[in-house]
Design goal:
Distance between the termini: 15 Å
Bound molecules: 2-phosphoglycolic acid
Order of helices and strands: EHEHEHEHHEHHEHHEHEH
């Protein structure tokens, strides 16, 4: 059985005091669930979040990290820094990192390798842009994003990888992929991984959907057989909405 996951990507939101308020509410309301629940606050609030959640089932992830071990990389954060404060999961390849901060497949492949070298768990994000879908290039784009960052890895690496399919046109726009579109792409991803690796890797990998998941659409999206949970942006900033989405899984 694949692990189900609901992860909240808080992006550049919530000051320290706001983070504490949200965490307190989350901890008191988080339902009993077989799914893993993860939150990814901004770097400066990670340590506080780890401490706050020490006795909770809610886990913590970072939103990004650098691929180098250490050195002259002003403004960047290393794997060792994350591990040292108790963060073992990292989101890599979010579309905002790709489009706003210029992260390429090549850089992402290095980040993935660094995370694996440090035995971290990776939530690897990818997905097509609107123009690519309109031109019917979405399968091709997704396949190449996966291939460039992940397909040279050894089979064993896959136990550390969670995938998050996030069509860029659905992120923060209020427009979601329909449950059928999500299922179609997730099934394609599994088929592609089966071809590149094997059936077991494809069956075992958790594939999250991300892009305007809200309390009112989560259940339908999560009901699809190849959708194993969600990566939630906006709705994860409101405790009751995030809780409702966790309950939908
Ligand atoms: P959204 O963001 O839920 O606000 O669309 C999803 C994401 O960027 O992970």
């Amino acid at each position: 059985m694949r692990t189900k996951i609901v992860a909240g990507n808080w992006k550049m939101n919530k000051t320290l005091s706001e983070t504490e308020v949200l965490l307190t509410e989350l901890v008191s309301k988080v339902p009993d669930t077989k799914a893993e629940v993860i939150v990814a606050p901004t770097f400066v609030n990670l340590s506080t979040t780890v401490n706050h959640l020490a006795n909770s089932v809610v886990q913590v992830a970072a939103q990004n990290m650098h691929f180098a071990t250490n050195g002259a990389f002003t403004g960047e954060i290393s794997a060792a820094m994350l591990l040292d404060i108790g963060v073992k999961t990292v989101i890599i390849g979010h579309s905002e990192r790709r489009s706003i901060f210029g992260e390429t497949d090549d850089m992402l492949a290095k980040k993935v390798q660094t995370a694996l070298d440090n035995k971290m768990r990776i939530i690897f994000c990818f997905g097509e842009e609107l123009a690519e879908r309109k031109h019917n290039k979405h399968f091709e784009v997704v396949e190449s994003q996966l291939k460039n960052a992940l397909f040279s890895l050894p089979v064993e690496a896959w136990s550390h990888i969670v995938l998050a399919y996030e069509p860029v046109w659905a992120i923060g726009t209020g427009e979601t992929a329909s449950p059928e579109q999500a299922q179609e792409m997730h099934a394609f991803i599994r088929k592609t991984i089966a071809k590149a690796f094997n059936q077991k890797v494809a069956e075992d990998v958790t594939i999250l959907y991300g892009g305007s998941v809200k309390p009112n659409n989560a259940k339908e999206i999560f009901s699809k057989p190849d959708v194993d949970g969600g990566l939630i942006g906006g709705a994860s900033l409101v405790a009751d909405d995030f809780i409702a989405i966790i309950k939908a899984i």
